[in-house]
Amino acid sequence: VQKHQTEPVTFVESDAESLPFADESFGVVSVAFGLRNVSDTERGLREMIRVCRTGGQVLVLEFSRPQVPVLGGLYGWYFRNVLPRVGQMLARNRQSAYEYLPQSVGEFPSGKALATIMERCGLSDVRCTPLTLGVSMLYLGTKREAVATESLQETPFAVAAS
């Protein structure tokens, strides 16, 4: 079995709205369960697009709200009532940290709404695929040519390049 040699992974902590990478640095740029924590979603997306090569892929994995009525209701109840208590017991932490999660998921755009924002920011062929019965959603878009982007500095964010 031949082992693949890869370059070492470097972790960088930076502002999601002002990434410390040159334009068109990566073929794929991704974020998992973090975009909803960026203070300006569109600026964060534009920065992801800026550092993505033309024709490259931008992937976003984020919590969503299940569209099946019964599942959506059960999920909402669990998310608001059970998860905060279990999280508090397991982490021996303040309950407010676990109350934030359902609130932030409920307020963040999902499905077609987030796909539309991604297109407006400069991605094409944006697709969203529900995962785990719609509890999360995978968004995939391709960077178009001539995308105008801007850099701003505000929100801390960890970036892992591999």
CATH superfamily of the largest domain: Vaccinia Virus protein VP39
SSE order, one letter for each helix or strand: EEHEHHHEEE
Q: Which CATH C-level class of the largest domain is it?
A: Alpha Beta
Helical percentage: 25-40%
Task: Sketch the major β-sheet.
Answer: 4 strands, mixed
CATH T-level fold name of the largest domain: Rossmann fold
- Regions with little confidence, pLDDT below 50 for 5+ residues: 149-158
Q: What shape does the CA trace take? A: globular
Percent of residues in beta strands?
25-35%
Short description:
With 162 residues, the chain is α+β, with helices and mostly antiparallel strands. It has two domains: 1-64 and 110-162, Rossmann fold, CATH 3.40.50; 66-108, no CATH class. Helices cover 35% and strands 30% of the residues.
Provide a descriptive summary of the structure in words.
The protein contains four helices and six strands, in the order ββαβαααβββ. With 162 residues, it is an alpha+beta fold. It folds into two domains: 1-64 and 110-162, 3-Layer(aba) Sandwich (Rossmann fold); 66-108, no CATH class. Helix 1 (41-51) links the parallel strand 2 and strand 3 (52-63). Helix 2 packs antiparallel against helix 3 (95-107). Mean pLDDT is 84; it is low at 149-158.
Describe the structure using short key phrases:
162 residues; 2 domains; 4 helices; Rossmann fold; alpha+beta; four-stranded mixed β-sheet
Write the layout of secondary structure elements.
Elements lengths: L9 E6 L10 E7 L8 H11 E12 L5 H23 L3 H13 L4 H10 L1 E9 L4 E8 L12 E6 L1
Parallel strand pairs: 2-3
Antiparallel strand pairs: 1-6, 3-5, 4-5
